[in-house]
Amino acid sequence: MDVNAAVAAAAAIAGVLTGVIAMLAFRFSEREQKRPTRTSLHTDAVLPPGVDTVLSVLRSSAVVLDEGDAVVKASSAAYALGLVRGGKLAVEPMLQMARETRRDGEIRQVELDLPRRGTGRGEALAVSARVAPLGSRLVLLLVEDLTEARRIEAVRRDFVANVSHELKTPVGALSLLSEAVMDASDDPEAVQRFAGRMQIEATRLTNLVQELIDLSRVQNDDPLEDAEPVRVDELVAEAIDRCRHQAGTKQITMAAGGTADLHVWGNRGQLAAALGNLVENAVNYSPVRTRVGIAARRITAPGGDLIELAVTDQGIGISDKDKERIFERFYRVDPARSRATGGTGLGLAIVKHVAASHGGEVTVWSAEGQGSTFTLRLPEAAAARAARDRDRDRAQQHPALDEEAGQRSTAPSPYEPLPAPEVLP
């Protein structure tokens, strides 16, 4: 009997102990859940009210660091630039600035060139970093990408320098030649020679000013305000007439083909200037007794048919490194040849802007010593497309009209009817 009582008492004591232990464990677990973890310390909750919202709308890359240099908050742009890696600020100069600002509370700013991630060409990423204290424990880092701004500034600086140089050359030549004419007033032969040189320099100056005006116009105007269907054969004929004298001087044959019954939609003046610039470049950069071809064709594209105009020459060609820059303003592959021909380096820049503003594009294929092919692709005029479809439907219903149309399509071209040149790939 005493044994049974002892066993019952022991079981009761064990049950009480088990309940106490379970209660203590539950209390401990509950307290641990409420305790802030190391991870929770680095969440948005530690940011002052409203800071998270402000950072989300900033264009700059934003990074917030705590007293241990751990990243509390970082924008997606900061990760894209490679500023934050593995929860740490990966740029040592910025990290050093943050530590100094945390120590003395001073706002600091610096411009840095950082290696660009993912490129093997060593390109630098220009950034401006500004560090400021955020409360008593945090530091805010704002990083602005200046790469594009620096590129635009470099283009503007080069443009101003090149314009100044290009204007100074003919103006200075005209000044010297006018003095020479005055000094040679008693020598009719010298006066005639100097006057001829003055005409050349005046023409170069006029062309430069006109191309600057054309470039400004195509950059600022909307060509589709005065858009109309433009016949391709008329554009080609105008481009050939524009360069006929230069081509004749160098005994260069100009051939055109495939331009009949093709229409593009756009500003006639700008389109004529763009195609004329391509043909003029082909003539200027071609050796004597060679051939320049202008070929046109219709190609099918997802957004609608395009008219493709290809200008092919047998000139000096363009190197791979120059292909990336030939459409920049005032960039010339051969400056010495450009000075000899009066080129300004603006022609291809105008072509690029005209093509883009008309919803098209311009591309180039070239190999050194094998010539070049510049291809201008423009949307076909919708009215011309509709008329062609109507004529095709009517011709299918009336075969006689189809035969008559075929006779008209084989009529000779108003300019030299040479076969279409081969368009290089």
UniProtKB/TrEMBL annotation:
One of its GO terms (molecular function) is ATP binding. Residues 386-396 have a biased composition (Basic and acidic residues). The chain crosses the membrane at residues 6-26. Gene3D superfamilies: 1.10.287.130, Histidine kinase-like ATPase, C-terminal domain (3.30.565.10). It comes from the Bacteria. Its EC number is 2.7.13.3. It is found in: Cell membrane. Residues 414-425 have a biased composition (Pro residues). The keyword ATP-binding applies. Residues 162-382 form the Histidine kinase domain. The keyword ATP-binding applies. Residues 382-425 are annotated as: Disordered. It is an enzyme of class 2 (transferase). Keywords: ATP-binding, Kinase, Membrane, Nucleotide-binding, Phosphoprotein, Transferase, Transmembrane, Transmembrane helix, Two-component regulatory system. It catalyses: ATP + protein L-histidine = ADP + protein N-phospho-L-histidine. PANTHER family: PHOSPHATE REGULON SENSOR PROTEIN PHOR. This is Sensor-like histidine kinase SenX3. It comes from Streptomyces similanensis.
